[in-house]
Design a protein that fits this description.
Order of helices and strands: EEEEEEEEEEEEEE
Strand content: over 45%
Radius of gyration: 18 Å
Helix content: under 10%
Largest sheet: 12 strands, antiparallel
Number of domains: 1
Low-confidence stretches: 1-12
Distance between the termini: 69 Å
Structural class: mainly beta
Mean pLDDT: 90
Shape: globular
Number of helices: 0
Length: 178
């Protein structure tokens, strides 16, 4: 007697019809406020917050203080967007450098990986991320490791932008969007 049956095929997640344009948050008046002390359960001191502003051409300028206009620059991240979404320059906590480090593609999907000269980032979609400001469940998270760049998890929420960065020695958590 022969038994026949169908083995279940492993499921693959179909790519979603999304674009990094819906997640990066770069617009003419885009601003964010972050904290970088790693604390999520206490109110931050206004003077130690990081005020961030998108200044154009992929540049996010971060300044410490109660007002962006009066504060001095303490960090800057330069992103590039063409077929890939990349970091090209960064001064962020203990990390600084230049290079072309892809985070993901312009049309990312869960499980996608991009690699460049010892740098690897994988895209994660089905997670919930907590920041000081809120929980976010419609996110693109790029989990990055390798040589020469700011390793860690880069998390972007739909219609907001960067809501969290968690690296081995430094982190950012959104306190308030625009």
């Amino acid at each position: 007697m022969w038994a026949t049956g169908c083995a279940e095929e492993p499921t693959k997640m179909d790519p979603e019809d999304i674009s990094i344009d819906d997640y990066h948050g770069f617009g003419a008046n885009a601003t964010w406020t972050y904290r970088d002390d790693g604390v999520l359960d206490e109110s931050p001191d206004d003077a130690v917050l990081l005020r961030a502003r998108y200044t154009g051409d992929g540049v996010v300028d971060l300044r410490r203080g109660s007002r962006w206009a009066d504060a001095s620059r303490v960090a800057e991240i330069v992103f590039r967007l063409d077929t890939e979404f990349s970091i090209t320059s960064w001064v962020l906590g203990p990390y600084s450098g230049t290079g072309d480090l892809p985070l993901g593609s312009k049309e990312p999907f869960h499980g996608q990986s991009v690699r460049s000269r010892g740098w690897l980032c994988s895209t994660v979609r089905r997670i919930e991320v907590e920041t000081y400001y809120a929980f976010f469940d419609d996110v693109l998270q790029f989990q990055c490791s390798g040589q020469g760049g700011p390793e860690g998890n880069w998390t972007f929420a739909k219609d907001i932008g960067l809501v969290a960065y968690d690296g081995p020695e430094y982190s950012l958590s959104l306190v308030a969007p625009q």
